[in-house]
Each structure stands twice: as structure tokens, then as C-alpha cells.
């Protein structure tokens, strides 16, 4: 039931504050991750983790890419992320004490299942953790450890609340591995937990900018292409924004790490190429600002979703939408993704596409 919403996608976008509260429920308390969050036996596995290998497809892959920045930066645990269809056909090398994490909304994605089956054939003792939204799925049945994302049923083909709850689940994994392996200071754990508890409210604030995002969507609807730029954990968020836009509005969209502009994509920039970027307040902001100057100097129309304190202002052909303020490195990708979901949604509605059921796509990709 879509309730008061015109599409399931919009309903599911608006369910995110509650979905995330549900993901956190009973798993954190008093500034800590609770020992039972990942089930019995998890701590012993996490204590000896030396590497993390994440396997996923599509939107779930983008969530994994964000987690890679967290694991390496915060825990100093090497973390690799790969799309399942490549991973399981290239004969990958997995070193001992690698925690394999399969990320999937449906738990029935053929490539993701094939990848974990291959790993299990190779070494039945190697632990596989499933982060999944479907309790009865094949992935959940075939994994050793499970964390349910608890997003609730996701009907829209374009994934939104599943992605946000995957990010929160990966943050819980970061905490659990950090604690069990002694790689995270207690004060850091408390900071991250406090940040996670604020995420539902901050998403709600970001959702309240929906009307402004719809106005921006009107400026994009006639475009044929769009370029999404981000740095650090915002690079996978740019990829996710581009995927959402292409999936449901059929506008060709590409994402690049902003630092790669000069290495090729800058050649595409002129007044017909809108550039969409995400500007949180972090140590990369100055670099991002110079990338922004490069594209506006070449006549691109620029759309920036920014931290209120980023010091960016709208001008001719530059549209700055302040989204949030003072968010940490775990919360930032979760929150800055929200306006990109809304942007894709509103562009698709304006174009009149079948938003919940985009052409050629299936909700669950059960064949390779
Ligand atoms: C995009 C989308 C797909 C899925 C992908 C993986 O909006 O929904 O890219 O993310 O097919 O699906 P799951 O997570 O079910 O394995």
C-alpha cells in the first residue's frame, strides 16, 4: 500500500528514518555495540579479522564501497569491495583471516550467491557474513553469520531504504570488528554510536528539503547527460546518485571521483553537461571547491548538495542546496545520499517514467 505517496519509491524514501531506527534497535546501547548484535560466535571471528572482502551488486555494491573507506581509515583493516559478477569469475585470492561480507537486499541475487558458493566450495571453514534484508533468503540460509538490515519490504525496483540500512549495518560491523579486535578506542566507539543515533532525525531534516530538490529536478529534466562528482566516501555516493538517475529517469549519468576530472571527463564539460556534487564539511572540501571552479569556468550548470557551513553559495548556473550541518564521517554519506534519491525521483516523475517499475529491470536479479 502506497498510502499517501504517489509511488512506492517516494514512500520508501520517507520510511528511512524509521527503517534506520529499526536497524539500530537492540544493537547499540549506552555508547556501545551490543555483543549479541551479530549472534553467538561472531566475536571470536571478528577478533581475528585481518581483512574484509565485501561482495555485492548494484546499489549494494555502492554501500560496500562506502564501508571500505570506513574500515581502512578508522580501523586500519584492509578492505576490498568487488561486484560479485567479476569476483566469482576471476579466481580471486583470499588470504587467511579474511571476513567475507555478502551484501544484498534480496538475498537472491544470482551473482552474489554464486560468489559465496564458490568461496564455500574452496574453503568451507571460511566465515561468510550476510548483510541482508530478506530473512527467508538463500543468502541468509547459506551464510555463517547474519545481520538483517530490517528495512522492511522494498517494492520499488530502485533501492533506497535498503541502501541506507545497509550503510548503518556496515557501521555496526565496523563497531563490532573494532571492539572484538581491540582496534577501536572506547571514546571513538561512543562517538560513532552517538552519531548513528542522530541519523534518523538528520535524514528527516534532509527529507524536509524535498520541495527545493524538486525545483532543482526541473532544471535537469531536459538534459541528456549528467556528471556526478564526489571525493572520499562521497565518491560511492556520487555513483549511487548516478545509478538512481539513470535507472528511473533514463538520463545518462556517470560518476567520477572529483580528482579524476582532469584525467579525462573535463573534456565533456560545457553548458550542456550538468554537474552534480556533494560537499560535506571535511578535509577534502577545499579540493572539491577547486574542482567546482573548474567545471563552472567551462560553463557547466552546477548542483551542489552542501554542508551549511561549507561556505558555498548559489549564483548564476550554480545551485547550492544546504542539506545538513556538522555530520561525522559515518553519518555524512548516509545523509548526503538522501537529496540524490529525491533528485532522481523528481526527475523521473517530471519525465513521466514508470518510477517503481523502470523498463528492462527486475527487483531481484536471480539470473546471471
Ligand atoms: C538499484 C538496485 C540494484 C540492486 C542490485 C543488487 O537501485 O536496486 O542495483 O542493488 O540488483 O540487489 P540485491 O541487493 O538484492 O543483491
In short:
The protein is α/β, with parallel strands linked by helices and 368 residues long. Helix content is 45%, strand content 17%.
How does this model look, in words?
There is one protein chain. The chain is an alpha/beta fold and 368 residues long. It contains 13 helices and twelve strands. It has helices spanning 8-14, 16-24, 42-47, 58-75, 84-87, 110-122, 138-142, 161-180, 186-207, 210-220, 234-249, 285-297, 331-351; strands at residues 28-29, 32-33, 51-56, 79-83, 98-104, 128-132, 145-148, 225-230, 252-257, 275-279, 302-307, 318-324. The strands form three sheets. It has a five-stranded parallel β-sheet, sandwiched between helices. The chain has a five-stranded parallel β-sheet with strand order 9-8-10-11-12, with helices on both faces. Strands 1-2 form a two-stranded antiparallel ribbon. α12 (285-297) links the parallel β10 and β11 (302-307). The two termini are 31 Å apart. Residues 57-60, 104-106, 109, 112, 158-159, 243, 247, 364-365 line the site of fructose -6-phosphate.
List keywords for this structure.
368 residues, alpha/beta, five-stranded parallel beta sheet, globular, binds fructose -6-phosphate, glutamine amidotransferase, Glutamine--fructose-6-phosphate aminotransferase [isomerizing], EC 2.6.1.16
Amino acid at each position: 500500500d502506497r498510502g499517501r505517496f504517489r509511488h512506492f519509491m517516494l514512500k520508501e524514501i520517507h520510511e528511512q528514518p524509521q527503517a534506520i531506527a529499526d536497524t539500530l534497535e537492540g544493537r547499540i546501547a549506552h555508547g556501545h555495540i551490543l555483543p549479541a548484535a551479530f549472534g553467538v560466535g561472531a566475536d571470536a571471528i571478528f577478533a581475528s579479522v585481518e581483512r574484509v572482502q565485501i561482495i555485492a551488486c548494484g546499489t549494494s555494491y555502492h554501500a560496500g564501497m562506502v564501508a571500505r573507506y570506513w574500515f581502512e581509515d578508522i580501523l586500519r583493516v584492509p578492505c576490498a569491495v568487488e561486484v560479485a559478477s567479476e569476483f566469482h569469475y576471476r579466481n580471486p585470492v583470499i588470504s587467511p583471516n579474511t571476513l567475507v561480507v555478502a551484501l544484498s537486499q534480496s538475498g537472491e541475487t544470482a551473482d552474489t550467491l554464486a560468489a559465496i558458493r564458490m568461496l564455500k566450495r574452496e574453503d568451507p571453514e571460511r566465515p561468510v557474513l550476510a548483510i541482508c534484508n530478506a530473512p527467508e533468503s538463500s543468502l541468509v540460509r547459506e551464510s555463517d553469520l547474519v545481520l538483517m538490515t530490517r528495512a522492511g519490504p522494498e517494492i520499488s525496483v530502485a533501492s533506497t531504504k535498503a541502501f541506507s540500512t545497509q550503510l548503518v549495518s556496515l557501521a555496526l560491523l565496523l563497531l563490532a570488528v573494532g571492539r572484538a579486535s581491540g582496534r577501536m578506542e572506547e571514546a571513538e566507539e561512543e562517538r560513532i554510536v552517538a552519531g548513528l543515533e542522530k541519523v534518523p532525525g538528520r535524514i528527516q531534516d534532509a527529507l524536509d528539503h524535498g520541495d527545493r530538490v524538486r525545483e532543482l529536478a526541473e532544471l535537469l529534466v531536459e538534459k541528456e547527460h549528467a556528471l556526478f562528482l564526489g571525493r572520499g566516501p562521497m565518491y560511492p555516493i556520487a555513483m549511487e546518485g548516478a545509478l538512481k538517475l539513470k535507472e528511473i529517469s533514463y538520463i545518462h549519468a556517470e560518476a567520477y571521483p572529483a580528482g579524476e576530472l582532469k584525467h579525462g571527463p573535463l573534456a565533456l564539460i560545457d553548458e550542456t553537461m550538468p554537474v552534480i556534487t556533494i560537499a560535506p564539511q571535511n578535509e577534502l572540501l577545499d579540493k572539491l571547491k577547486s574542482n567546482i571552479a573548474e567545471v563552472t569556468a567551462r560553463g557547466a550548470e552546477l548542483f551542489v548538495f552542501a554542508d551549511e557551513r561549507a561556505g558555498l553559495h548559489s549564483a548564476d548556473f550554480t545551485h547550492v542546496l544546504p542539506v545538513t550541518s556538522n555530520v561525522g564521517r559515518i553519518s555524512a554519506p548516509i545523509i548526503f545520499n538522501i537529496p540524490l534519491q529525491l533528485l532522481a525521483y523528481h526527475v523521473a516523475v517530471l519525465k513521466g517514467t514508470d518510477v517503481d517499475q523502470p523498463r528492462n529491470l527486475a527487483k531481484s536479479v536471480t539470473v546471471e
